[in-house]
Specification:
The protein contains eleven helices and 15 strands. By secondary structure, it is α/β, with parallel strands linked by helices. The protein has two domains: 138 residues, Medium-chain alcohol dehydrogenases, catalytic domain (Quinone Oxidoreductase, Chain A, domain 1, Alpha-Beta Complex); 143 residues, 3-Layer(aba) Sandwich (Rossmann fold), CATH 3.40.50.720. Strands 3, 4, 5, 6, 7, 14 and 15 form a seven-stranded mixed β-sheet that branches. Strands 10-9-8-11-12-13 form a six-stranded parallel β-sheet, sandwiched between helices.
Length: 326
């Protein structure tokens, strides 16, 4: 089978090599999956560069989210040959390969109406956002939700899930193309942060009250300014630091304005509480079948174009998810 291998650290276009390797065998409690599509993430770039928190041994294959078809199972498996699934392969054997062997606890069934591209694109982003909004923020119908970087992977999921939960959604994005994307996802108000002050707009649209929940995957100055438009009893969700700077939260300000700063570490949650992840997956599949969520895909790439796709992702000019189709 063919697989993209990394044998030294560097930029993806310099170190990724498409090679012919042996098809993996499956251990006990594993399933062999023929990969149909792979979603790429920014941390795939960091893995190639050796800058990610996890440093797998060489050679390794990137790709944390795949969709595909089950082609081999062990006796007693809960999956069946031919079943379509989402899978989260573990490093060093990632998903930019024609076949992957994956632990059963990291495999999830999908709706029969879901395309392979949609399936590969939905898991990490939608699970992160669902966990953030429902378990960490306990979002309620009628509350105001401010989503930063609304055209990104997790941001686009948060807009759709916020609307599905009955929230009034305000989204920020940079530039005409990305603000248009946010409107298409159902955001009630869209703010172009390149030309508008989101703090002022949020206060105007809420009659000075502010946002009940703020979904922040950016950090840095965006977090600092979000504190200026958080409502009484509000919750600021710390998703990540795509802006590059990690902010400090002054506890006196948190006390005076009576809001919460809430960490969202979905990866650890998924390891500690896999049964709850399965329950949330069932809810997400239900929302998909009801037409309330639909993964946002920027572009589909051929399998031979993985380095090109990662380079484009690294430029941070894309929106939604980038998918590689096998």
């Amino acid at each position: 089978m063919r697989s993209w291998l990394v044998k030294e650290h560097g930029n993806p276009s310099d170190v990724l090599r498409l090679e012919e390797i042996t098809k993996p065998s499956i251990d006990q409690n594993q399933v062999l999956i023929e990969v149909e599509a792979v979603a790429l993430n920014f941390f795939d770039i960091l893995l190639c560069q050796g800058k990610y928190q996890e440093k797998p041994p060489f050679p390794f294959t990137v790709g944390a989210e795949v969709s595909g078809k089950v082609v081999q199972v062990n006796e007693g498996s809960k999956f069946q040959v031919g079943e379509r699934v989402i899978a989260l392969p573990k490093l060093p054997a990632g998903g930019t390969a024609e076949y992957v062997a994956v632990d059963e606890q990291s495999i999830y069934p999908i709706s029969s109406s879901m395309s392979s591209n949609e399936a590969a694109s939905m898991f990490i982003t939608y699970h992160t956002s669902y966990y953030a909004l429902h378990q960490r923020a306990n979002i309620q119908p009628g509350e105001v939700l401010l989503v930063h970087a609304g055209a990104g992977g997790v941001g686009s999921a948060a807009i759709q899930l916020g609307k599905a939960a009955g929230a009034y959604v305000i989204a920020t994005a940079g530039g005409a193309e990305k603000t248009k994307v946010c409107r298409s996802l159902g955001a009630d108000i869209v703010i172009d942060y390149l030309t508008e002050d989101f703090v002022q707009v949020v206060k105007e649209k809420t009659d000075g009250k502010g946002a009940d929940v703020i979904y922040d995957p950016v950090g840095g100055e965006t977090f600092d300014r979000s504190r200026k438009c958080i409502a009484f009893d509000g919750r600021i969700l710390v998703i990540g630091f795509a802006g590059g700077n990690i902010p400090n939260a002054p506890t006196n300000h948190i006390l005076v304005k009576n809001y919460s700063v809430v960490g969202v570490h979905w990866g650890l949650f998924s390891k500690l509480k896999p049964a709850e992840v399965q329950q949330e997956h069932n809810q997400l599949m239900k929302l998909y079948e009801e037409g309330k969520i639909n993964p946002l895909i920027y572009r589909e790439f051929d399998f031979e174009e993985v380095p090109e796709a990662l380079n484009l992702l690294g430029d941070r000019k894309t929106w939604g998810k980038l998918v590689v189709k096998l």
